[in-house]
Amino acid sequence: MKNYDVIIIGGGHAGIEASLASARMGAETLLITQNLDHIGQMSCNPAIGGIAKGHVVREIDAMGGEMGQNTDASALQFKMLNSSRGPAVWSPRAQCDKVLYQRRMKQQLEKTPKLHTHQAEGLSFVTEKGKVIAVQTQFGDKFEAKAFVLCCGTFMRGLMHFGPQQLPGGRTGDTAADAISDSLKNDLGLELMRLKTGTPPRVLAKTIDFDQLERQDGESGKFSYWTRDKAYETIDRGGIPQMPCYIGRTSAETKRVITENLHLSPMYNGSIDAIGTRYCPSIEDKIHRFADKDSHQIFLEPEGVFTEEYYLNGISTSLPVHVQNQIVHSIPGLENAEIARYAYAVEYDVVSPHQTLNSLALKPWPNLFVAGQINGTSGYEEAAGQGLIAGANAAGLVAGKPPLVLERDQAYIGVMIDDLVTKDISEPYRLFTSRAEYRLLLRQDNADRRLSKIAYDYGLLPYEKYKIIEEKETLINNEIERLKNERSHGKSLWEHLSSHKNTYDSVVGESDFSEEIKEQIQIDARYECYIQREKQQVERQKRLAKNPIPEEIDYLNMTGLSNEARNKLSRYRPVDLGQAARIDGVTPAEIGLIQVHIKRWEESQKIKA
Ligand SMILES: Cc1cc2nc3c(=O)[nH]c(=O)nc-3n(C[C@H](O)[C@H](O)[C@H](O)COP(=O)(O)OP(=O)(O)OC[C@H]3O[C@@H](n4cnc5c(N)ncnc54)[C@H](O)[C@@H]3O)c2cc1C
Ligand SMILES: NC(=O)c1ccc[n+]([C@@H]2O[C@H](COP(=O)([O-])OP(=O)(O)OC[C@H]3O[C@@H](n4cnc5c(N)ncnc54)[C@H](O)[C@@H]3O)[C@@H](O)[C@H]2O)c1
């Protein structure tokens, strides 16, 4: 029997950030994962970031996580998506060298003090007096800890579909993890559900006719606040070059092949019961749902410099392998392409997230935390964001700290977790900027200003890093003060800067400030009134959240509630009125009713006492 403070099970994107957060907070941490060489493997496309996902990477980075730095160190190209639109929706995205990403991440874990990595499969939990006390592996080892984080990704009872062919597995090349799923159901009494995702084929570069495709180069930029002082071009990537992506399009022939073979897709002939990602649809889904469209765009993404494989972003499918060949060959430029790896779909078990708190602890098992795809999300970044919170909270629990919960006005990570625990998750959840109600507060460019103090106070971020952000904040605030006091042509410089026609340079002239600081000041000035409006909305929401709901409140017998509200409130058991108000189907009038009911309940308690 071996003893730790915290044990993490599963070394994917969630497990990595959970392990690092826990160890960096000083907890003796063990990461158990099925294959150490697959730590941080990108199960699907070799890219980090994108719409709203890029915000999450910046947030993880600002809180001391690894995903941003690891992306910078393995990036093949960087792009800022949505840069023609407002700053709230700018979204950084990078193509990565898949192998370098994984290898560097593994080494980062190995180099971290207090973090131990161990190759094994977690089979079952041992419990005692309402707590999880140990996990057992296939080798007969029993590892004890004070807190646990489960990050099994797509592996629990994973079943892969290649057309009619079904193979057990968490993803190709990896075995499924069935036993732990049984333990969650039978030993811990948890409710599980089934979801599915998929991936497109990979083809070999020498068989692609690049002349028929549109070349797409990257631009300068990077993710991490801690590599920001270095120019993008000078980040140490062990000499790997930058690589272009290519754009192609499906043809009328693609549509014909798919339409004629739709009955062979497990998604359409009923072989897969699980619900898939509406927002990352398969090519058969797109052709079926958008029947009026003649063609769909695809991105050809290099998987790395040590491989000739290209990822065909946009044609994820679970059609049989012979149909996959016809689909690929119907795309101009891919007429002679050789498929190196077939596309497939995978079904897996998820821990229904209504059983989880905002801290990511399970309600019935307060020292067991869950993070990543196992909570019903889809995406590396979503998984990593949850991992960081779950790992911090596991270590926090051991150290006797109150839970670290990010609110909806503080971080996209907070929006995501709150959505997971209050909304019906019936399909894989992915983040969008539209999921956040306070988009101007939660920009990708200000994640450090929003979150590094919180992370420092909780013990996640060391002082030498926090100091950099603290100094930056002081510079920004002093400069804003100066701009508000200095006047020119009858207006303060700040008022001049608030006009969309002006820039910091055009108003102030030469200065010693970095581009990053000038950008912050400019955004703060231009969007001041909108930012103020969002802050007022936050205050209103906070007033509601100040009303905690006693655990004893019985919604099932509460008169005046609709059946939908009654059932959902009983299922999700919101901790305060703010959270109750965010549950789909609960109306403002019903919130008023609950408020009255709480008052009555409190008075009855006083009389009893
Ligand atoms: C086919 C496919 C296509 C996908 N497409 C994309 C995509 O294009 N882009 C995207 O952003 N997301 C995609 N996803 C989802 C993405 O892979 C996940 O969202 C992300 O990897 C989830 O991270 P995670 O840490 O939760 O789990 P994973 O990355 O799945 O990692 C889980 C880890 O836990 C280990 N493990 C599991 N059970 C046990 C156990 N009992 N004991 C020990 N170790 C265990 C596994 O070996 C694995 O290392 C896809 C997933 C798959 C499988
Ligand atoms: N295949 C699946 O079933 C599945 C499941 C879960 C997640 N995912 C993946 O999650 C990831 C994030 O999803 P997403 O919808 O934001 O996709 P994304 O990040 O690939 O695309 C977002 C936007 O980025 C742009 N873009 C895409 N590829 C690009 C490239 N190579 N170069 C420049 N710009 C590019 C496009 O304008 C696109 O609309 C995707 O990579 C998707 O494949 C897929």
Automatic annotation (TrEMBL):
Give residues annotated as binding NAD(+).
276-290
Q: Which residues bind FAD?
A: G10, G11, G12, H13, A14, G15
HAMAP family xrefs: MnmG_GidA
Check the record and name the Gene3D superfamilies matching this protein: FAD/NAD(P)-binding domain (3.50.50.60), GidA associated domain, C-terminal subdomain (1.10.150.570), tRNA uridine 5-carboxymethylaminomethyl modification enzyme MnmG/GidA (1.10.10.1800)
Q: What InterPro entries does the record tag this protein with?
A: FAD/NAD-bd_sf (IPR036188), GIDA_C_N (IPR049312), MnmG (IPR004416), MnmG-rel (IPR002218), MnmG-rel_CS (IPR020595), MnmG_C (IPR026904), MnmG_C_subdom (IPR047001), MnmG_C_subdom_sf (IPR044920)
Belongs to which family? Answer: Belongs to the MnmG family.
> What Pfam family is a match for this entry?
SAM_GIDA_C
Keywords in alphabetical order: Cytoplasm, FAD, Flavoprotein, NAD, tRNA processing
Q: Which cofactor does it need?
A: FAD
**Name of the protein:** tRNA uridine 5-carboxymethylaminomethyl modification enzyme MnmG
Q: What does this protein do?
A: NAD-binding protein involved in the addition of a carboxymethylaminomethyl (cmnm) group at the wobble position (U34) of certain tRNAs, forming tRNA-cmnm(5)s(2)U34.
- The region annotated as signal peptide is none
Domain tRNA uridine 5-carboxymethylaminomethyl modification enzyme C-terminal subdomain, by residue range, is 525-596
- Which compartments does it reside in? Cytoplasm
Could you describe the subunit structure of this protein? Answer: Homodimer. Heterotetramer of two MnmE and two MnmG subunits.
